[in-house]
Design a protein that fits this description.
Number of domains: 2
Pfam family, one: GST_N_2
Protein name: Glutathione S-transferase
Order of helices and strands: EHEHEEHHHHHHHH
Radius of gyration: 18 Å
Keywords: Transferase
Largest sheet: 4 strands, mixed
Helix content: 55-70%
Bound molecules: glutathione
CATH architecture of the largest domain: Up-down Bundle
Strand order of the largest sheet: 2-1-3-4
GO cellular component, one term: cytoplasm
Structural class: alpha+beta
CATH class of the largest domain: Mainly Alpha
Number of strands: 4
InterPro entries: Glutathione-S-Trfase_C-like (IPR010987), Glutathione-S-Trfase_C_sf (IPR036282), Glutathione_S-Trfase (IPR040079), Glutathione_S-Trfase_N (IPR004045), GST_C (IPR004046), GST_Omega/HSP26 (IPR050983), Thioredoxin-like_sf (IPR036249)
Shape: globular
Number of helices: 10
Length: 234
């Protein structure tokens, strides 16, 4: 583990948050020492509300006195203090990487809309939007197994939580979010098994996500509850 001189990092997190996964993956990938504190988002501690301007996780507390929020910014800061191994040093290439990180954030918002959609029509609308985004990715990613030809970067870290969702949705609901997009499927398999990405979630992640889905008053929530009943009956 790298102990950065005079830097104490504390990540305020939640076990299911996809944005937290980005910060953890960056810290783990770069082998940086940090402390993680998971909080209950349904009962946010008052100290957290004081620290987080948006009242959202993740936040990164640096040296007990500086607070960073927004996962993409936190990941970039982590990369910067570790010597910038995960973004290009060329301005144009780096700007492109940041643009794709934004694209990933938009997809994550769509996944939130997908599992919250109240009926099948709304659900299919969002599903199709996501499908169109996966198609765009298929056309833009490298065929070498990561987003960029050059290898693993913060862009991969930004997309990894999407693939984590896709894998659980597929396992429990047979929902093939990644469709027939071959390069995307290979990329996703590559990311999910990478150590830093794996350690961004706890071993009970799938179980927790399933329980979360079952509580949702939504189309996917209903499908999850049906699956749960079949499990109990079997
Ligand atoms: N744009 C933010 C999104 C963070 C976010 O939406 N976090 C959610 C959990 S996944 C949260 O803290 N929600 C609490 C709330 O909205 O009250 C980021 O990238 O960090």
């Amino acid at each position: 583990m790298i102990e950065l001189q005079n830097k104490q990092l504390t990540l305020i997190s939640h076990k299911l948050c996809p944005y937290v996964q980005r910060a953890v993956a960056a810290l783990e990938e770069l082998n940086i020492d940090y402390k993680r504190i998971d909080i209950d988002l349904n009962n946010k501690p008052s100290w957290f509300k004081k620290l987080s301007p948006t009242s959202k996780v993740p936040i990164l507390v640096v040296d007990d006195n500086s607070v960073l929020f927004e996962s993409a910014v936190i990941a970039e800061y982590i990369n910067d203090i570790a010597g910038n191994a995960l973004l290009s040093s060329k301005p144009l290439a780096k700007a492109k990487q940041r643009a794709w990180i934004e694209f990933a954030s938009n997809m994550l918002q769509n996944i939130g809309k997908l599992y919250s959609a109240g009926n099948k029509t709304l659900y299919l609308e969002v599903f199709n939007q996501l499908d169109a985004q996966f198609k765009i990715l298929e056309q833009n990613i490298s065929s070498q197994g990561y987003f960029d030809d050059s290898g693993f970067t913060l862009v991969d870290i930004a997309f990894a939580p999407i693939f984590r969702y896709a894998s659980v949705f597929n396992d429990i609901l047979s929902l093939e979010l990644l469709g027939e997009y071959k390069k995307v499927v290979i990329w996703s398999e590559n990311l999910i098994k990478r150590k830093s990405i794996e350690s961004a979630v706890t071993p009970e992640y799938s179980k927790l996500l399933f329980a979360f889905l079952c509580k949702k008053d939504s189309y996917l929530g209903e499908l999850s509850k049906q699956y749960q009943s079949r499990l109990i009956e079997a």
